[in-house]
Amino acid sequence: MGAHPKLWQGLLERYGLDVEDISALDAPEKANHASYRLFQVKRPARIPSRPRTTTPPAPHAALGVGALLHGPRGLLLGRHRRGTWELPGGTVEPGESLPEAVVRELREETGLMARPADVRLLGALHDHVGEVVRITIAAHVTAWSGEPADQSGESVSAWRYWPLESLPPGLFECSAQVLTAWRPDLPIDHPAAGFIPFAGPQAPLLSSPA
Hints:
alpha+beta
């Protein structure tokens, strides 16, 4: 046999076969030096997977975005009709990307314009509210245009820029979590939430309106 048995064993295993035994078959005549190898192999049993059920699960998670707009004039916050101060943001709609959700929510709530390319995703916050798992994507908008203004039909108004050293009390819990994920040094109290930062190029944190 010209090739070493280990070579053939390696080739067989590479193609998904298990080698159970290798037998030597030598010619019975003393003058005949022919020697062969008989490989006993089997194909390993396949591991089945269970198909997904067609029954939809009960809703138990919510995905949203919180947008940070910070420039020389300060951090943009609006006052909710419940009395809390919060960042622009909201629920991600079906079919849209996370940057698209940020741009849409910003336009709908404040009238400000930005591009998905101007949105830097910082990471994901996750916590529980009752039986619902809430996942909020912290996003930093690096450029925008226009002046913030109250929008008809929206629940947040009185948009203004606040200095980081004098943020208003009564921040919305979710906005407080996003702000702390962005700037852990800010003296903000809020319920604990897990934060998973996203990897990728880091854009400058201080931005100016376009």
